[in-house]
Write a structure and sequence with these properties.
This protein is an all-alpha fold and 87 residues long. Helices cover 94% and strands 0% of the residues. It has helices spanning 2-26, 30-86. The chain starts with a helix and ends with a helix.
């Protein structure tokens, strides 16, 4: 029962924080709203740029690993063929 009460209190706290944030935003001046909008847009752009950077890095690392695996595979095939020809 205590676990459910804790979750309920946490939900109530979250709801209260949301209502407070909405009230605070509602009472901002148009200048402050524009400033907040630009700040949110800047942060969003930074997140997008970071995501693109990480995605590119992961993709290049994956391609590098694929090439390394392909090289090892061809080296093993060559070694197997050389051993088969010696026998």
């Amino acid at each position: 029962m205590k676990r459910q009460q804790g979750k309920g209190l946490l939900a109530l706290l979250g709801l209260g924080a949301g209502v407070f944030a909405w009230w605070k935003y509602k009472n901002l001046s148009p200048e402050q709203k524009n400033k907040l909008h630009s700040k949110v847009n800047d942060v969003g752009q930074k997140v997008k740029d970071t995501y693109t950077e990480v995605e590119s890095s992961v993709k290049s690392n994956l391609d590098s690993l694929k090439n390394s695996a392909q090289n090892v595979k061809s080296d093993v095939k060559t070694d197997v063929n050389e051993l088969a020809n010696k026998s």
